[in-house]
Amino acid sequence: MGERFLLIVFLVFTITAAIQIFYYLYFYLAISTKKPIEKKVNHEPVSIIICARNEEENLRNFLPSILEQDYPAYEVIVVNDCSEDGTYLVLGEYLKKYQNLRVSTITKDPKFTHYKKFAQFIGIKAAKHELLLFTDADCTPVSKEWIEGIVSNFDDKTNYVLGYGGYLKAPGLLNAYIRNETFVIAIQYLGMAIRGIPYMAVGRNLAYRKSEFFNNGGYGLYSHLASGDDDLFINNNAKPENTVCEYRHPTQTRSVACKTTEEWIKQKQRHLTTASYYKPSHKFLLIMEPLTRMLFYTSFIVLVSLQYLWIEALSVLGFRLITQIIVFALAQKKLKEPGLMPYSIFFDIFSPIINGILFISRGRNKGINQWS
Q: What is the enclosing helix (H) or strand (E) of 203?
């Protein structure tokens, strides 16, 4: 190959390395370096909204951890959305035991199909309080101070609080991949929000004002999509001046990860359907990172295999790797996600390819529009 071509490859390699390091030091490091702000005690009443479809086991296991929070004034609204298992019986048992539990039931109608957003809307309409806190039926807070920690962020300027929701650790490579990907996405959306670019959140741990929902037209133009009740709502309405990130350990949640690859693929493809609706500037930032990562590794392989400036290439690779390890180690310590580092380095190479394939094939999967 010609000298000019190899020089271009080396330039691509160094430029993409610089862009990658920028993402690490500016966005991903933000949650570790952000100075903690003293939180004020705020016991404003809260409505917690959980949508459930065929979640008998998860509700039995995890709902008490939400109903037994150390918080003086809150209600828990479970929207039982066309469940066909024992969800109704479990909720009936808990209604007798917990005075702060309320249940809204949607009955199955063959003439009317809907996504999770409709159930979410029913829960929001039923909420008595201005502050809304969202989680899922398969989620559990890591402490009894979850509500208090989230609510302490609300003041006259704050309308949105973006929380962290990780996954419970389980055996297997799939669980490690899901936990690692969730961690990387979290330091990305939290880091970008800290830097003034709130572009998404996760419905496993998200809070906002009821008035914000209705004043901004609810789910608006995206009500027909299977996903987007969390990320698209934040993408369209959250602003730097009215959004706060909360990721202290007592305010986190943990969820049950998909147990099969097929289940995870359907879930991931469904989530990827919303990416096309992000703001153009957000899409650019989100595409740039995995694209430059792929170009970085590809150009490195070309340089080393052809032994062109390979010592310099190894040095740049080493610097980027050290930066990644330091940033990820600090973030994993902050988010209480130990043991992910080996997976973070390994999956760093393959995740852009996997996500690219799933994004391209997202419309071909007939199960993509399942409720979740």
A: none
